[in-house]
Design goal:
This protein has 138 residues and is α/β, with parallel strands linked by helices. The chain has 4 helices and 5 strands, in the order E-H-E-H-E-H-E-H-E.
C-alpha cells in the first residue's frame, strides 16, 4: 500500500501491450527508489501498467479517473518523476501529466527514459509536458 507522504513520487506509465504479452516491472524506478532511500529521501512507485494494458480512449479516461483518485491521496514533498518515457507509453504520459497538473499543480515534473535521450527533442518535454527537468542516460 502506498503511504500518503513521500519526498518523490515515481510514476510508471502504462503502455500499449499486444495480446498475450506480460507486464514489465518498473525495474528502473525501483533502482531510483533504492538510490533515493540510500541518500535519505523517501519515495513511492505508482505503477500504472499493472492496471491498464490498452491505450484506447476508454482506457485513457479510466487511467485519468483512477490516477486522479490516487494522486489526491499521495503528497509528494519535492517532485514527481515520470518514466520510462517510450513511444508505446506516450498517450499514457500525456494523461499522467494532465492528472499531475490538476492534483499537484506546483510540483516539478521530471521525465526520464529512451525518448528523453533523442538529440534536440527536449523541447517536447518542456513545452508540451511542462517538464522541470529531463534526465538523459542511465
Amino acid at each position: 500500500m502506498i503511504n500518503n507522504k513521500c519526498d518523490i513520487l515515481l510514476i510508471n506509465p502504462s503502455y500499449h501491450r499486444r495480446s498475450g504479452s506480460g507486464v514489465i516491472p518498473p525495474i528502473g524506478l525501483a533502482y531510483l527508489s533504492s538510490f533515493l532511500s540510500k541518500n535519505g529521501f523517501t519515495s513511492q512507485v505508482l505503477d500504472c501498467s499493472l492496471y491498464f494494458d490498452k491505450l484506447d480512449n476508454i482506457s485513457l479516461e479510466q487511467i485519468n479517473s483512477w490516477l486522479q483518485k490516487k494522486l489526491l491521496s499521495i503528497q509528494p514533498r519535492l517532485a514527481i518523476g515520470i518514466g520510462p518515457c517510450t513511444t508505446s507509453a506516450i498517450r499514457s504520459i500525456i494523461t499522467i501529466v494532465d492528472a499531475c497538473k490538476k492534483s499537484h499543480p506546483n510540483k516539478p515534473l521530471i521525465f526520464g527514459g529512451p525518448l528523453t535521450f533523442i538529440p534536440d527533442q527536449e523541447w517536447v518535454f518542456f513545452e508540451k509536458f511542462s517538464a522541470s527537468a529531463v534526465v538523459k542516460g542511465e
